[in-house]
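Hi R.,

Here's the chain you asked about this morning:
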Amino acid sequence: MNLMSNFLYSVNQGIKGVFKNKTMSFISIISVTASLIILGIITSIVLNTNQFIKATEYEINEIRVSIKDNLDKSSLDNIKTDLSNIKGIKNIEFKDKETMLDEMKSSWGEDSYLLEGLENPLDDCYIVTLENSENIDSVSSKISDLDNIKNVEYHKDVVDNFIKISDSIRNFGSILIVFLILICLVIISNTIKTRVYSKKEEIEIIKYVGGSDSFIKLPFIVEGFTIGMIGSAIALFTCIYMYDYILENVSKAINFMNDNMMIQVSDITILLSATLFITGITIGVLGSVISVKKYLKV
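And the predicted structure, written out as tokens:
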């Protein structure tokens, strides 16, 4: 019972400490929030990059082989035979230009009416699926050398560029996050340090009557915990609001995007909640522990 009373007292004193030292607590919360928002943005980019690659994996492994016009069945069969002899090809499927146009109309959804009445600009083609997307350059080069081939198209370069941009953002963001976390630790430490010295006489009395070091330290740790919690909550709300807005507008702007290409709000909320709250609370508690250990010498 005494242990529970001591714990509740420490929690009460720690929460009160956040609101008593309003200016420093506010600065600490803003610092934690800013760091966690950046962390949330970077985490969302990395997770959606992986999701995009997973959702479009079949396209990365595909090569569209456009063939010349007005070829007879014998020529078409010869092309298919030549393709099947190339090492690394898993599947070969023929699609005429009418089928290709129908698929395009379907992918455009409500905007498909824009294609009505237009002369079909597409070509008959073979859709070649590879065993491994890493071989796409060499396989496409061999296909280009075959007879009656008009054009060879694939999307690996687009995905590679997408990944490079994402990696650059992640690397730069990681450095920025480390820098901001260090600033947060310094600010939170100074906040707790100020509180320690403002309660110097009270702490001396507690020690005099036999109060333990853990009893004295716990309220300050609770204070750092509370700062981290508040900063995490604000950052999470901000990130989810931004993500929902971006997801809605990107989906409207890009007709071919389906629900699998980006993580849905409900799923990203769970992932970001775990990431931001664990990080925010850790920053708050660690900042408090460092400060208490260094400055609680009264």
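Residues 200 and 297 are 9 Å apart (CA to CA).

Let me know if you need anything else.
M.
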